[in-house]
Known about the structure:
By secondary structure, the chain is α+β, with helices and mostly antiparallel strands.
Amino acid sequence: MNAKDFTTTILVDQSPQEVFNAVTNVHGWWSEEIEGNTAKQNDEFDYHFEDIHRCQIKLTEVIPNQKIVWFIENNYFKFTEDKTEWTGTNPTFEISQKEGKTELRFTHYGLVPEYECFDICRDSWTNYIQNSLKKLITTGKGEPNGKDKPRTENERNLSANR
């Protein structure tokens, strides 16, 4: 891991299986706009938010209750000079037991401070993992983007500036 790759961690009382099931329920914590399958190795799905962000993702490694690795096959950002930032990067979810709890470590390998989108992406991922995904794990209900409805402050700002 490069120390610059974006990482955030949560600790919950739920089991590794409950955490794994929540992570693979991408509709339940990231976006209701997900099209495709999100749970098994080689599954592929598409994400889009308005005309601002689109990406195609493939699950390249899935170890039940332990690890999920996404590969960003294609990405488009309307708000960056390099529209393809994220292409070729690997958002990774690692699940482990720690002090009687379950730790979820999310690292977006390749999302580094040199990227123009870094601040917006860091803030958005932090919200999705620390807030929406954590709520899905602990209460059964996350806070994903609705149909073309921004959830984070950055998304609201980007929508207003389209």
